[in-house]
Amino acid sequence: MEKQFRKKLKRVAETMNGYVLGLLILTGINIIAVLGVSVLTGFTRLFSFGNAGFMSIGAYTSAILTTRYHVPFIPALIVGAGLAGLLSLGLGKITLKLTGDYFLFATLGFGECVRLLMEFLDKFTGGARGFGGIKPYTTLPVVAVSVVLAIAGAWNFIHSKYGRNLMAIREQQVAAEAVGIDTAKYKQMSFTLSAIYAGWAGALFAHYMMFITPAMFNLDKSIELTTTVVIGGMGSLTGSILASMLITLLPEILRSAANYRMLFYGVAVVLVITLRPTGLMGYKEVSLNWFKKLPFIKTKS
Q1: Which of 5, 91, 151, 228 has the most crowded Cβ, counting Cβ within 10 A?
Q2: Is the entire prediction scored with pTM above 0.70?
Q3: Domain ranges in the chain?
Q4: Strand partners of residue 131
């Protein structure tokens, strides 16, 4: 009896460890995807519903390269993210001339076109049945390194002269153009970086799930990414990171509520937006100086 109990306890522990590990990996992947949307939406004020399309491009490209052409994972990931960025250049030339809701609808159409294309290219993508046999290259260390690199890249970009120009465009595009800022160039730059991050996250997602379908990258996914940025704060990378953790973990925390889980999740999101219209962090960033200002942390002068 004691041996059986120990074996059962060990199986439960392994299951829990696998469950927690999976949550951490998914959280990291979502952070990368949301950081890309944050650069575009939070710092350039361009709302896009096409990032799920870029995720699917990265996912299917890396999956096809590794499974059918035996390309190593890292080069396949780079190609997947690069292809997403390359396609964003062409899309940006057409759509970035649009303003307001028109740009939003154009990116929405792009995302849906990509999803339908993945279903139509049955011989390459498996169509609506899905694409399987993907090797599980996405591990926690791989995701951890990717998240660190993604945060470092986004942080340095936003705090460079390019990021300052993006914020100028966000606050007042006409004034930015008046002082000589090439708004079209910087919009394209942020759009491409956002697509690269989405393709990067998609490649990691494919090699974690080991099976992907076009339905995984539908409009709901794009809306989720944009909503996460709004909740975190329009203009805060750390806010986007915190919101990514909240959006990923909250449904799992409420899983015991069964059928009411998504209701509680929706109410929680509405409360955050209502009580904090500027998001969790607004325009603020978490830094070492921010921690030093906390009342319970005393520093020697």
Answers
A1: 228
A2: yes
A3: 2-217
A4: 212
